[in-house]
Every structure is written in structure tokens, then in C-alpha cells.
Amino acid sequence: MSGDGITSAMPNPGTVEGGRMQAPTGLALFRYHMNKKLRSPAPYLMVVGISLWVLLYWLFCEVWLLPRFEKMPGPVAVIKEWTAVKPFQGISLFTELYYTHIWVSVRRIMIAFTIATVVGVPLGLLMGWSRRFKDYIFPILETLRPIPILAWVPLAILMFKGLETPVIFLATLASLFVTVLNTLLGVESIDEAYFRAAGCLGSKPRQVFWHVVVPGSLPFIFTGLQISMGVAWFSLVAAEMVSGDYGLGYMILASYMNNVTVPMVIGMLTLGFVGWFTSALVRMTGNRLMQWRTRALALEGR
Amino acid sequence: MAATTAVHGAPAPAAQRGGKGAISIKNVTKIYDPGGVNVVAVDNCSLEIASGEICMIVGPSGCGKTTLLNAIAGFHSITTGTIHLDGELLCGPDKPKAEQGADRIVVFQNGALFPWKTILDNVAYGPVIQGQMSRVEARDKAAHMLAEAGLHDVGDKYPGEVSSGMARRAEIVRALINDPKVLLLDEPYRAMDALTKSIMHEALLEMYDRTKVTIFFITHDLEESIFLGDRVVVMTTRPAKVKQIVDVKIPRPRDYKILSSDEFRNLFGQAKDAVHEEAIKAFESGERELA
């Protein structure tokens, strides 16, 4: 260990082997990161920040009963209902219906997101790869893309039978556009030098596709997939409100219709958590697939 | 200025060292037409490069040096003229653009190791993709060549994890593993500090001594050009043609001590005069650089 004492305020978890510093791995690495995080102000600021918001929410809704807030359930009411074994308004952590709604929405998102990714990524890659293919597809795509997803609702209901398929169709469509566009941008962002280098080294076009186009556009693809996940949730909930029998969007609207406001807020918060979780899942997958990028960014301290 | 006539002059003494990689550029002209306005980038340029020669190309920014390199590598077409490699036509009247191939490998200004492959896989890429070796064989050879170049422990790292000097060295190894006839270097050490540069120079000469590959090296750095080169070709400002060729007869192996020798200073002065004249012309014309 060099022991320069300037920055090493915390113990260095690496081990010295044959005079060379070995980087920590596994559990040691995890503990190192946790330790580092707990020494930075970030987690404490986060706790303070959240507490402040909840406090304000509580004061507005349950203490001062400000105008506009008097119909909104406060944090105490929501948490009480959410954790009640026998909830007054029908939805809590202990009711089966709550999980049915979550599962129905999550299942729809999984189907829509998978279709959008499986179709969108190759479409974007091919458009970036072949000028001609782009000329065929891009104008139509650019005309359809600005149409707000809610404008598709009547058509979707006419086109597809039942309650399930129109909802999935709308979520798929919304995230498809995002995925295609970001993938295309990803291919176009690749430095020309990589194509030239691949050519110099004797690659055939198909090999350039697999060794340059695909890996080179991954950072943009995964940024796109995170946005596409958000857009999928957005349009799913909108669609569930218009046509549906289950799902978090339906649950929110149905609660409103039935004048039970607490499940409405529970539904919103649940969407927040589930949406955050799915985004994190996409981000983690991206980081795993792009070790080269994760490692380089880590060296820059990011 | 006597050397101006030496355009087709005798090849440098290094000619006998290598058996392949002689480049013959004859009357090459390249005209770009951005927005319907013809811009002559290279004008009737001729240059003979012997096999196994280190040929340094210097000239003002944007004079058309890279255009020439792009034509040899097959990235761009030429308008008239011919370029031959070992007697075989690369590009000419009926075939304005050369095919890209692993006999001429470019090392780029900003580095083009694939950031998504480890250094070892980068180096092994060429032989695998050309179907010459299995992945295991190629990786073995790559590891061996990296070690030879003094890059022992970097194989498993990604290019983003090593210094730019290491990355550039690895990129040259990635080229050399294909046993190319010509190495085309486009200001590879431009962004490096003087100390790193001198280390890079020694490493390059070491690799050159092992392989005797023909090197076509574009640079702005006169000291670098004389230290490394068998000949220094000074280009005119755009449109580019050969202005003067400075023969560097300093024996190899060279080390940094020759930088202070009289012979070196004398050659440096010659090249400097020629380049300076062109630099002034280029500056006064004030045109935007072309790639």
C-alpha cells in the first residue's frame, strides 16, 4: 500500500500481492462501495430531502388543510390504509386485488416493452446501417411519431378486440418509436474511424455490423430503452384509464369514480416505485452488457 | 532547394531491407466538390516510396496529406493518376477508389481501438475476422506480440482503461499482427506531450526493426519526422504536391542523442525552411482545412 495519507481517509480494502496492489472483488468491493457511500453526504441529504417533502405534504393536507389540498389524502392516512390488514377503501398491501392490479400492469409492460425492443432495435440498427433502408422507412416513421399516443386510442379499440390487446398495442407503439429513434441515433453516433479501422483490418460488411454497429450503438440503445420504458408506462396508464378492467391505471381511475381517494394515491405511488424499479433494471442490464463503458466511466469518477 | 527535382529520385537506402510494400504514386490529383465548387486538394502529386522505408510526410495543416493517405487506404477515391502497391494497381483511371484491405493498415489520429473489445481481442480481431486463425490461436499470438511490444498486463483491459500512449502502441500491434505491407499513420502522436512522444518513437522504431514494414507517416512535428524517417517529404500548401524531399542518412538504430547532433540540426533547418515557406502561404490564403 502506498500510504500517501493525503486522500486515504478510509481504509483501502485491496490486498498487496507480489508488490502490486490487487483490486478488491466480490463482498470486499461491495463493502468498499457501501462504506464510501456512507461517508459521502449523499445518503443523508437524500433522507433529509425526502423527510422535508413528506413533512410539507403532511402539513398541507392534514394539519393546515389548505385549499385545494383538503380533498387529498395526507401521508398518515395513506400509510395507514396501505398497511391496513382490513382497509376501509379496498386496497392495501394485504388485499389480493392490489397485487392483481400490479401484476396485470407489469405483465402488459413486459409484453409491450419486449415487442418494442425486439422490433425496434433491429429496425433502428438496419436504418443506421443501410442508407437505402432508412430512405424507405424513415419518412413514414417521422410522420407517425409525432401523433400523440392518446390520439391512437379510438383506432386501437376499433382495430383490436377485447380489452387487453388495445392497451398493449398503445404501450408498444409509444415505446417502439423511442427505441427505433435512439437506436438509429446510436448507429449514427459511432465515430467513422471505427468503420474505417474495421475495413482496414479486413472485415466484410456483415462483420462490421456485428463488431462495430451493434456494440457501438449500445450506449444510445440503452439510454433509449430507459426512456422507452418510461413512455411505455405513461401510455399504458393512459390506455388503462380509457379501456381496461384491471391494472394500476384502471385502479386509479376507478377509485376516483367511486370517490375513494386513498387507493388513488396508493396507485400513483405504486406506479412511481414500479416505474423506478423497471428503469433501474434496464440500467443494470445495460451496465452489465457494457462493461467497457462502465469501467472507463468509473475511472473518470462517474 | 536543389532537392525539388528528386521527386522520382532514388529510393532511400532502406529499400533493400524489406521485400514488400513499395508504394508508387503517379500524377495523382484529387478534386473535391463541396457545394458545386471544385477544390483541388492534391494536384499532380508523384512520390515513390521504397519497401521497408519510413517515409515521413510533413506540410501545412489541411494541405492534402490525409487525402493522399485516404486514397492509399481506400477510404476516398482519386480524380486522376495512379497508385500502385508492389506493382499492383490500387487505384487508377478505371478504379478511382482502392479496396480496403489488411495489407495497408491505418493508425488513426485519435486512436480507433474498439472501445467495446479488450485490448487482447482488439489485437486478435484482424486474423480472426479474416478467417486466418481460430480465436484461441489469434489471442495467443496477440498476447505474444503485446508482450513483445512491452504491453504485458493490459490484454484484459479495455482501451478506456489505459493511457493514450499504451492504447496507441496496442493499435500499432493490432495492425502489425496482420503482417501488413504498409502501415499508414496519420499524426498518431499529435495529442501527446514531448516525453510520451519520445517513448512512443522508440517503441515504434523497435517494432519497425522487427517487422521492416513500410511506413507512411503524416506529421506536423519536424523533429519527429527527422528522428524517425528515412526521408522527409515536405508538401506544398493546398493543392498538395511534393515540394522538397529531405534524405535522412543518420544510421539506425537511432536514439534521442542524435537530436543534438550537427547533422540533425542541419536537416532540421532544411526542412524547417521549406515548411515555413508553405505555412506562410497556407496562413495567408486562410482557407478552411479539408479532411
How would you characterize the overall build of this protein?
The complex is a heterodimer of chains A (302) and B (291). Chain A has twelve helices and two strands, in the order ββαααααααααααα. Chain A is an all-alpha fold. The longest helix of chain B is centred in the last third of the chain and has 24 residues, at 262-285. Helices cover 33% and strands 21% of the residues of chain B. Chain B is an alpha/beta fold and 291 residues long. The chains are: A mainly alpha (302), B alpha/beta (291). Chains A and B meet through α8, α9 and α12 of A and β6 and α2 of B.
Which properties best describe this structure?
A: 302 residues; mainly alpha; 2 strands; 2% strand; flat; B: four-stranded antiparallel β-sheet; globular; disordered N terminus
Brief digest:
The complex is a heterodimer of chains A (302) and B (291). Chain A is mainly α and 302 residues long. In chain A, 73% of the residues lie in helices and 2% in strands.
Content of β-strand of chain B = 15-25%
Mean of the pLDDT scores of chain B?
85
Going across the biggest sheet of chain B, name each strand in turn: 6-7-8-3-9-10
Assembly type of the chains comes to: heterodimer
Poorly predicted residue ranges of chain B = 1-18
What's the topology here?
The complex is a heterodimer of chains A (302) and B (291).
Chain A: E1 15-17, E2 20-22, H1 26-39, H2 42-63, H3 75-82, H4 96-129, H5 131-144, H6 153-159, H7 164-188, H8 192-200, H9 205-242, H10 248-257, H11 261-289, H12 291-299
Antiparallel strand pairs in A: 1-2
Chain B: E1 23-32, E2 39-49, E3 54-58, H1 65-73, E4 80-85, E5 88-91, E6 104-107, H2 119-129, H3 135-148, H4 164-176, E7 182-186, H5 194-211, E8 214-218, H6 222-228, E9 231-235, E10 242-247, H7 262-285
Parallel strand pairs in B: 3-8, 3-9, 6-7, 7-8
Antiparallel strand pairs in B: 1-2, 1-4, 4-5, 9-10
